[in-house]
Fold this protein.
Amino acid sequence: MLLTKTLASSTFKLALIAIGTFGVIASAIFGYVYLSTSAYVRSRSDRAITAEVASLRDTYDRSGRDGLIDVIRQRTADQTFAGHAYVLADPASTVLAANLEKWPPTAMASGWTEFRVPWASPGSTDPLVRGMVHTFASGDRLLVGRDISDLDRFTRQIKTAVISGASLVFVLAAVASILVTRRTVGRIEQINATSRAIMAHGLDKRIPLRGTHDEWDRVAENLNLMLERIEILMGEVKQVSDNLAHDLRTPLTRMRGRLEKAYHGKRFDEDAQALIGDTIADLDAVLRIFTSITRIAEIETQVRKQAFRTVNLVEIAREVVELYDAAAEENGNSLTMTGDGEVPAIGDRDLIFDAIANLVDNAIKHGRPGGRVVVASETMNGSPIVSIEDDGPGIPADQHEQVFKRFYRLEQSRYTPGNGLGLSLVAAVARLHGARIEMSAKAPGLLLKLWFPAPGPPQQ
Amino acid sequence: MTGSHRRILIVEDDPETAGQLVEQLTTSGYQVDLATCGSEALGRGAAGEYAIITIDRMLPDIDGIAVMRQLRCDGVAAPFLIISALGEVDDRVRGLRAGGDDYLVKPFSFIELLARLEALGRRSDTVAKETILRVGDLAIDLISRTASRRGKDIDLLPREFQLLEYLARNESRVVSRTMLLQHVWDLHFDPSTNIIDVYVGRVRRKVDDQQAYPLIHTVRGIGYCLRAPD
């Protein structure tokens, strides 16, 4: 998991680019060193060979073939010329004088050549010889060379050193970058995990510090400070609304009590009593709005999460449909239910019921009079879903987000009963459950889907 | 009902709400004692024989739930009606219902409170063993889960039967919409629409249409009552 993230991280990609660039430059430098060393080594012996060929040509020109044979024999016998190779052959390739066993088969008529041919002296190894061939006007051919075995070994050593050095650099750089990236990714993953925990469970989580006082610890410290501020602010907001709720509730309870007392007091005539009754009804409407807001706020505190257990979405949806069946009938709508036998999800039955009830209520109220409303629930790709579809006028696409805001009402439904809090409650319930709301337009109508997270192993 | 069954202890810290409760409950025939804080409630509750104790969740000194728990430990058997503000209705409060207790969310209507008290008081002095409930010419067979009027079967869905059964069990008593939601649907919130009215409307058509007299009566502003004519 961490390795996959390491390999996919941008730090690692940067490191790879750096290793690549660095490696190409290092290889170029090493290659240059190798090539120039071997060229230098060869050019030194080449100069000496060229000079010797020139001097031996002079000898041939002056003293003829026999003179040259004498000189070659002298030289091959002389220890000072150890490592020098000489071969003089006639046009038929018969060796006339040499310290090599034979005329090297690869040697051309003239020019530079490299070959392996054993020394003429018995028991010797095959040296690597680099030599130059000169063909005289008579057709005799002279080869002068040097044993470059040592030089060759030297350049090969350089080559090995260069290649292994370059590979080592590559490997070390790769290992170093994986380690560095892993560390970085590990810290970022920690921050990510904390952020996810905060989104899922509330603001009381903090990013753990390592105590290394490095830049990551500082980032974590600052984020933690931010979280603390947010938590304090949220707490204050909640406290204010809690106090407001409590302080308003008490006078409202008294007010309602007095009105009720008057209503049942029989001291008034029928008209006055109707007025009082209407006032109580209005007061109740105010209280309901108030209750809805407090309820949404309560849901958003995530406290309800503690009571989550495995519920069957189909069963809840069916109960909602059953409850609203009479209302749909009264409206002339058809309300039907389809779905699997069991759709398990983790959640709070009351809240899910409330959310589905709100959506069904909306579909009946704002759908087409005499239209149809279909509630469905199934498990799709492991996710439990509930969907509500109607064939009414729908919601304009640009307002799909807006309708979940508190007190938001569409222009077309401004005068139908309702307070614009139903969908905010649905949104709050969805957030609490980690469910996703998907709204899509039908022709005609609206399809609203609630995607719940896949349930883990059964709780309790 | 005996005198002690009509004795009630109210624990409420807001003076005006407490005053209204005392006055209205007294008018309704209860003998009412009042405690204005947790410690007073503990003293009075342990000393007196009460049929019901209503308790405000938010008290100035001790939490209402703690008072209740303490009284239970002291051997007080009376059912409790917890009065709490919304948002305090957590699972602890909900769990109380199983023990024969009930809760009410503030602000509540007085008739609602009265309906709850009636239901709670009845629970402690009647043990229902009937298999058939009868209200007027309506017979509800609890074994076969069927209902009939004058021998003619009424075609009811399972939930509609439950609703009728609940109304019959509270014959001649007012049942609020919230009580129906809680006892018939096991829902602990108010869907804040007229949905219950529409639902009861349909049951009423099935039960009362083309009959000699209506059984299901609407009680304005609160709920319903199932009763036979006098």
Q: What stands out?
A: The domain at 3-125 of chain B is CATH 3.40.50.2300 (Rossmann fold). The helical segments of chain B are 15-27, 38-47, 64-73, 91-95, 110-125, 158-169, 177-184, 195-208. DSSP finds eight helices and twelve strands in chain B. Residues 7 and 31 of chain B are 5 Å apart (CA to CA).
